Amino acid sequence: MSALHRSFLHDFQLMSRNGGLDSGGVERQAATAADGLNRQWFAGWLAARGATVHYDEIGNQFGTFEIHPGAPYVLVGSHLDSQPRAGRFDGAYGVLAGASVCSELYRAASAGELELTYNLCVVNWFNEEGCRFKPSMMGSLVYTGKLELETALATEDVHGVTVRDALDTLGQRGTESIPEAAAYVEIHIEQGKSMEENGQTIGLVEATWGARKYEFRVTGEQSHTGATLIEDRKDALLGASLLIAAARRIALEHDVITSCGELLILPNSPVAVAREARLLIDLRSPDAARLDAADAAFAQEVTKAASEANVEIETLSRNAWDVKNYAPEGVELAEQVVQELGLPYTRIMTLAGHDSTNVKDVMPAVMLFVPSHKGTTHNEYEFTSDQDMLSGLDMLIGVMTRVAKGELA
Amino acid sequence: MSALHRSFLHDFQLMSRNGGLDSGGVERQAATAADGLNRQWFAGWLAARGATVHYDEIGNQFGTFEIHPGAPYVLVGSHLDSQPRAGRFDGAYGVLAGASVCSELYRAASAGELELTYNLCVVNWFNEEGCRFKPSMMGSLVYTGKLELETALATEDVHGVTVRDALDTLGQRGTESIPEAAAYVEIHIEQGKSMEENGQTIGLVEATWGARKYEFRVTGEQSHTGATLIEDRKDALLGASLLIAAARRIALEHDVITSCGELLILPNSPVAVAREARLLIDLRSPDAARLDAADAAFAQEVTKAASEANVEIETLSRNAWDVKNYAPEGVELAEQVVQELGLPYTRIMTLAGHDSTNVKDVMPAVMLFVPSHKGTTHNEYEFTSDQDMLSGLDMLIGVMTRVAKGELA
After folding, report:
1. B48 to chain A, closest Cα gap in Å
2. Does the keyword Hydrolase apply (chains A, B) (predicted)?
3. Do B85 and A267 touch (CB under 8 A)?
4. Considering only CB atoms, which chain B residues are within 8 Å of A291?
5. Which of A132, A350, B216, B405 yields a CA-CA distance of 20 to 30 A from A152?
6. pLDDT tens digits for B64-79?
7. What stretches of A198-256 adopt beta strand conformation (E)?
8. Residues A151 and A166 in one domain
9. How confident is residue A399, by pLDDT bands cut at 50, 70 and 90?
């Protein structure tokens, strides 16, 4: 095992202690104490390896390794925040792998073993998960100009704490100018099971799936669960339940992916019919026609649910993302690397959102996957083997070397 | 308007300020600061009128008016706690009406205008609503020996605060011996709309509706809302939603009342499929056969929902209450009073649970209703007119006088 491999595995163990659970998982929701601790630990790791640590105004954390003063940077990274009771690989693997590769290439370039065109920068995007503060991918949305900084900073968690206050409490909201970047590279666990089942070690992400995301407010009327006649009820929780059940029926009929991850109920008291429910539902598919058909069918179900539960259902927001490609030159560059390494690989689409889905729209981006055991993810028993992590690291070194030499942009 | 009527309406306005909302409603969940404030206010009201205030070990608040030292008491009362964003009448009307009647009869007996056999005691049962601490009717359950004191005291709210700590914080958990009671009287708003629609001012409650109450735990597996294939999901929120939708279908098919008032979801994060959901569902009916049929049909739906959502559904608790009568002598006694007063009345069943549904099992109890405008309840816009409240007060004086003379027990 190479020194880089050894130190990566050791560092990954150390990082996983920050916000670590007994199960081996982690809980580091964005800008909580555990996330702050891990970000601080990571800043120390970077400084110890000669990087300069910067924070931009939305709390994205950058570690720059400067080789040619004034030259643009190649960005590599992912996110260190996690879901509640989550796995230790999602996001964190990509950040530490990117940092390890930057550090190694910086050492080699400084020692004259390697000639690079660009500088190197690892990034830890703030709040990719979107569980404490919505929306997800907040840091990369602000970075790419898709979300207003002020809107993001004013976002509140369920306790009314804003992103601004949470970052300031950690002392990790910055004002620093963002390194000028020429290209972006990210490696991540697949979060699906197809690569493991097909014996593929590396995934070359070609495109994102399309998605329709809805936020609904169901308005009913608070009343007594016993004394109010069924025909007089305006039960917001029933309305929400009908939407959730309908979304699943549509997923099966139209062969799309659907889910409701969050449902808030007021007052959620054992003997009160709910006056209000708010929920997020999404539909996803790699096929635009299927997605449109499912979207249309779901709109009818919304009307039906409102009438059945005798409630009002408002669509507070509705976002549509179409299937979108990553730069084909990036996929080809990565394919050359994986073939040189002789690793089993596949071209693949991503069902999950990643920071690269935002960043790819403003610069060429390469997105790589390593396998997830059984596809288990957003779960403390998420697992990727050391061997797969190290194959990913080798892959990332190869890709980063070429990109930093100017072969992509 | 009599002095008693005038002072009752004034006092009711004063009481409604404690935990009052701008809408005219109140929020005084059990043993919160607002409930504590109101209980303290009520203790002052009682002391000022010559009552002695006692607290038993579960925080039931008693105001005793002693006429014949050593004689048993007639208990009258209801509860001062409320649902979140609730009306000012539910429970509070009955406590203040009972206290006003006790005070008036005590004055009359002390002045030699009236000869009573029993002493008088008003009671404010602790935590009837069951929203902050489950189960509902906690104070009367413990009083009647149906719930262990220690179990009740150890009950936690969602923040982990126990009933014991909440009562101790208010300084309102007592150790005092409970007055020996011969009979119980309670007046309450109907919480349904039938009396208003039929022009009836007084309801004589003959029986409770039957109920089946279930607490379910749905166990799924936490995973990614986007990346996890539909066929691999074990979505606890979907399982819960299917149960809620099924309960409503059964209510319509079998002509019973059903509801889910509370649903807890873990982790309830926008991009995580829920690993667990806990929910309360009940079925209610005045007809035992309909209730049994609905119960059997629902059991099949539970199995179906578990299979459809690919989750495990455990029934954590299942309580069955059959239709149960109030003492017929009490209904007859109250009927004589209402006929003497010449008020329009009806015999009625109660769909809602009340403290009297517990107390009636250990001593003769009389339960009276006054109308609720449109049946609106567990809602800040709950309303009962002054005239109806005062008719109820007259009714209560008549009933209490007879019961305190020993005509019921």
Report:
1. 35
2. yes
3. yes
4. none
5. A350
6. 999 999 999 999 999 9
7. 202-208, 210-219, 223-224
8. yes
9. very high
- Under 8 Å between Cβ of A112 and A407: no
C-alpha A250: how far from its chain's center?
26
Q: How many distinct structural domains can be found in chain A? A: 2
Three-class DSSP category at A194? helix
For residue A258, the domain's CATH number is 3.30.70.360
Whether residues A73 and A201 fall in one domain: yes
For the segment A368-387, what is each residue's pLDDT rounded down to a tens digit? 999 999 999 999 999 999 99
Domain boundary among B321, B354, B385: B321
Distance from CA of B371 to the nearest CA of A (A): 13
**How many Å apart are CA A128 and CA A251, to the nearest integer?**
26
CB spacing of A224 vs B257 below 8 angstroms: no
Write out the residue range of the structural domain in which residue A307 sits.
210-321
B148/B16 same-domain check: yes
Is residue B66 domain-resident?
yes
Q: Which of B221, B225, B353 sits opposite A226 (nearest CB)?
A: B353
Residues 6 or more apart whose Cβ sits within 8 Å of residue A42: A15, A61, A63, A80, A95, A99, A124
Do A130 and B226 count as a contact with CB atoms less than 8 A apart?
no
Beta bridge partners of A157: none
At residue A82's C-alpha, the angle toward residues A76 and A87, to 5°, is: 100
* Torsion (CA) B173, B178, B184, B188 in degrees, nearest 10: -10
* Interface confidence (ipTM) of the complex: 0.87
| Together in a domain, B99 and B136 | yes
| Residues in chain B within 8 Å Cβ distance of A130 | 270-271
Which of B222, B241, B376 is facing A379, going by the closest CB pair?
Answer: B222
A226 contacts in chain B (CB < 8 Å):
191, 209, 211, 257, 259, 282, 284, 351-353
